[in-house]
Specification:
With 161 residues, this protein is α/β, with parallel strands linked by helices. It has a five-stranded parallel β-sheet with strand order 2-1-3-4-5, covered by helices on one side. Helix 3 links the parallel strand 1 and strand 2. Helix 3 runs parallel beside helix 6.
């Protein structure tokens, strides 16, 4: 069974390599929003709420010396808070969002990012798909994605300074 999982994990990892341009574009757009005073508002459905909390912590409490903290909030499992707390310059990140979760954020003019497993998600500005049906592998790829987003946002921030 571990060989099967290794093949699934390898395929998802290679798909991420193929999609790295999309991750770079999302990070560039995020950096622009942070540069205009935006905040990151993250949420996740069910167990993905823990990943949303991790996203918010990564941005607000950088573990690398010299990287600046960026404003981020975790909405837990409540995307319904986006129209209440969100502002046009903000960033909404949905981890495994359900259809319609990012609609209010998009209507406000927020930058919308969906971390999905393999689903299409038309209402997001950036859809970053783990391209795996295995929920554990998809989660591993999402963790890698949001760490890449964090690092690349800081690269773009430093280049703009």
């Amino acid at each position: 069974m571990s060989r099967v999982l290794d093949r699934v994990r390898d395929a998802a990892g290679m798909a991420l390599v193929e999609d790295v341009g999309a991750v770079i574009e999302a990070a560039s757009d995020m950096s622009g929003r942070f540069g205009r005073g935006g905040r990151l508002l993250a949420f996740g459905r069910a167990e993905a709420a823990a990943d949303a909390a991790h996203v918010a912590v990564e941005f607000t409490h950088p573990v690398i010396v010299g990287k600046r903290a960026l404003p981020a909030l975790c909405l837990g499992t409540e995307p319904s808070l986006l129209p209440i707390l969100g502002r046009p310059q903000d960033i909404a990140v949905g981890v495994r969002p359900a259809g319609g979760d990012l609609a209010a954020a998009r209507e406000l003019g927020m930058l919308t990012i969906a971390l999905t497993a393999n689903e299409a998600y038309a209402e997001a500005d950036h859809v970053l798909s783990a391209r795996s049906e295995d929920p554990l592998v998809a989660r591993e790829i999402h963790i890698t994605m949001y760490h890449l987003l964090w690092e690349l946002v800081h690269v773009f921030q430093e280049a703009a300074a």
